Amino acid sequence: MDILLIIIVFGLFYLVHFTSVMHSGGLKVLPIITYIIALILYLIPVIFIKEESANQFENLMLILNIGVLLYGIMGVRGLWSRPLKVKIQELTKSSDSMITQQKYDKIESMKINLEIDKYKGIISLVMSLIFMITMSIKASSQYKEDFAFGNIIILFIFIAIFVIYIIIDTILRIIKGRWRLISIRPLLMSIWLFIFIMILLIQR
After folding, report:
1. Which residues cross the membrane (predicted)?
2. What is the DSSP string of 58-98?
3. How far is CA 17 from the centre of its chain?
4. Sorting pLDDT into bands at 50, 70 and 90, what band is 99?
5. pTM
6. Alpha-carbon torsion (32, 36, 39, 41), positive or negative
7. Helix or strand run (H / E) with residue 147
8. Is 131 exposed, middle or buried (0-12, 13-18, 19+ CB in 10 A)?
9. Up-side HSE of residue 192: CA atoms within 13 Å toward CB?
10. Smallest Cα–Cα separation from 127: which of 35, 44, 22, 28?
11. Distance of alpha carbon 57 from alpha carbon 45, whole angstroms
12. Quick count: other Cβ atoms within 10 Å of Cβ 155?
């Protein structure tokens, strides 16, 4: 069961990339069917792993917690696209007088990635939320307290990253003359983690 859950949770990382390509190609139904199958497979270990099997249950909680973080980061990165938009605008502006085929292809590729990232962001946050809800339902009060404390430490790490990114943003603003606001990503991730911690503590 542990192995099945690991394959599903981390396999979803590649599934998101695969279905985002299908989505950008105009395929809508196949990605939905794929995620329904993945959800059914996900529920098998979630339902059958009980707290009585301490080792398996701890592994379940740990894998789900990693899933919350991994797909939360992917979701925030995909939805906050300003840094990529600024880069596209800079390339377009620098190519106003004369645009080479190479630059044109690069700009078009980045625009496609922009659309794909939105899809990845939405799907990833939904997955992260599913893992949050699963943990809040399955875990006992003790497990919730333990994981809430662990995530508080991770929250402080993201806050520290946020402060560092603010400095980088300021430097880039001085050099380039535009705000890229890359600091918003760790800020949003900190908010997402705070929500997760609150869910764990409130549901005790």
Report:
1. 6-22, 29-48, 60-80, 119-137, 149-172, 184-202
2. HHHHHHHHHHHHHHHHHHHHHH--HHHHHHHHHHHHHTSS-
3. 12
4. low
5. 0.87
6. negative
7. helix 141-176
8. buried
9. 26
10. 35
11. 10
12. 19
Give yes or no for a contact between 188 and 80, defined as CB atoms under 8 angstroms apart: yes
Please state the rounded mean pLDDT for residues 147-167.
96
To which H or E segment does residue 7 belong?
A: helix 2-24
Q: Please count the helices (runs of H) and the strands (runs of E) in the chain.
A: 7, 0
Least confident range from 49-63, 81-95, 122-136: namely 81-95
Average pLDDT over all residues of the chain: 88
The sign of the CA dihedral 5, 11, 13, 17 is negative
Q: How far apart are CA 30 and CA 37, in angstroms?
A: 11
> What confidence score (pLDDT) does residue 108 get?
79
Around 118, how many Cα atoms within 13 Å sit in the side-chain half-sphere?
9
Cα–Cα nearest to 131, from 63, 58, 78: 63
Name every residue whose Cβ is closer than 8 Å to that of residue 126 and which is 6 or more positions away in sequence.
Answer: none
Tokens standing for 11?
Answer: 């396999």
Please tell me what DSSP assigns to residue 37.
Answer: H
Contact 142, 159 (CB under 8 A): no
